[in-house]
Amino acid sequence: GSMGQVAARRDATTVAIREALRAYLRTVTHNKPREVRGSFSFYAPPRIFARDGSWVSSVRLYARVDEILSYGAY
């Protein structure tokens, strides 16, 4: 139903946000962090469209990283 469509679009946007933040963090830190703390906001509303029967979202973000916690030495 329509609630499933809303959830699917929300999930597509969540995936896009995670991918955008990961892409940015790869330019900031070389090692995979255990945790990142900060905030983000949308630069523009997410673009959501259907592709091959699935919802896909494209986002542009402002991000502020306050803290990057590493796994530490082993």
Structure description:
There is one protein chain. The protein has 74 residues and is of the alpha+beta class. It has one helix at residues 2-28; strands at 35-42, 47-51, 54-58, 61-69. The model has no long low-confidence stretch (mean pLDDT 92).
Draw up the topology in text.
Blueprint (H helix, E strand, L loop, with lengths): L1 H27 L6 E8 L4 E5 L2 E5 L2 E9 L5
Name its key features.
two-stranded antiparallel sheet; 4 strands
Task: Give a concise summary.
The chain is built from one helix and four strands. The chain is an alpha+beta fold.
Strand order of the largest sheet: 1-4
Instruction: Give the radius of gyration.
Output: 15 Å
Strand content: 35-45%
The number of helical segments is 1
Report on the biggest sheet: 2 strands, antiparallel
Low-confidence stretches: none
Can you tell me the overall shape?
Answer: elongated
User: How many angstroms separate the termini?
Assistant: 49 Å
The structure class reads alpha+beta
What value does the average pLDDT take?
A: 92
Per DSSP E runs of 2 or more residues, the count of β-strands stands at 4
Helical content (DSSP H or I, runs of 4+):
25-40%
Give, in order, the helices and strands: HEEEE
